[in-house]
Design brief:
InterPro entries: DUF892_YciF-like, Ferritin-like, Ferritin-like_SF, YciF. The chain is an all-alpha fold. The chain has helices at 11-40, 44-70, 81-96, 102-133, 136-169, 189-201, 225-229. It is elongated. The protein binds fe (ii) ion (2 copies). One fe (ii) ion binds at residues 27, 30, 57, 60, 119, 145, 149.
């Protein structure tokens, strides 16, 4: 009997592969996003939670590369519109909150939990699809990552409940920040955030993947990650600006 790999791929198989590529794009960028969030968080516990999950995210990238290898696919990231929207929300939190405030930490937790929930939905669905498609070797790898995403979500809830939200609740309203000018030479938080992120992804050739892209997996080079995240002025692209054309 012909195996799944020998037949022409079904529409579901192609959808599975596309979802795999999109979460790969997301995980590659999440390593840098988590680093930026750790830098911008105020409390040591929250910084540490972001750092720890950044390390786990390296493993998430490696597991996805193993799955690409199992399926004889190159490790090819594909832009993920949903995750880009969540990244945008994270930058908005940093732009609109005072550095060092409990308010910022509470809002960063919300932004991070939205990302974790997106990942939980994606990995849960990929696991189910893998079972349906007979990719048994991938199921366990998805489950390992899924468990780490759920654990992180729980840790963030714990940090919020343990004191960050309460501290934010009694924090006086900070001095009103002037809205950032559209033009001019005054540096804004938005610019510095964008620059920090840009530096973080500089050199991340979106197809390069992790250093772990070994095992014979051919790392692809579909173009610069910057081009996906930033416009020509170096500012993060908005949700609409990244809308993918529907074929
Ligand atoms: Fe992840
Ligand atoms: Fe995660």
């Amino acid at each position: 009997m012909a195996t799944q790999e020998q037949q022409s791929p079904s529409a579901l198989e192609l959808f599975f592969r596309r979802t795999l590529q999109e979460i790969y794009w997301s995980e590659l960028h999440l390593r840098d996003v988590l680093e930026t969030m750790a830098e911008r968080a105020g409390t040591e516990e929250l910084k540490s939670a972001f750092h720890t999950h950044r390390l786990e995210t390296n493993d998430h990238v490696s597991r996805l590369e193993k799955i690409f290898h199992q399926k004889n696919m190159g490790a090819q990231p594909v832009f993920c519109l949903g995750m880009q929207g969540l990244f945008d929300e994270g930058w908005q939190v940093i732009d609109e909150t005072e550095a060092g405030s409990a308010h910022r930490d509470a809002a960063l937790i919300v932004a991070a939990q939205k990302v974790e929930h997106y990942e939980i939905a994606t990995y849960g669905s990929l696991r189910t699809l893998a079972k349906t498609l007979g990719c048994e070797a991938a199921v366990g790898l998805f489950e390992q990552t899924l468990a780490e995403e759920k654990k992180t979500d729980g840790i963030l809830t714990e940090l919020a409940e343990k004191g960050i939200n309460a501290a934010a609740g009694i924090e006086p309203l900070a001095e009103e920040k002037s809205p950032p000018p559209d033009t001019g030479s005054i540096g804004t938080e938005s610019e510095s955030t964008a620059n920090a992120m840009k530096e973080a992804v500089d050199g991340l050739d979106a197809g390069a993947g992790s250093a772990d892209a070994s095992e014979g997996v051919e790392a692809s080079a579909p173009g610069s990650a910057d081009a996906l995240l930033f416009d020509d002025d170096g500012k993060p692209k908005g949700k609409r600006g990244n809308a993918r054309k529907k074929n």
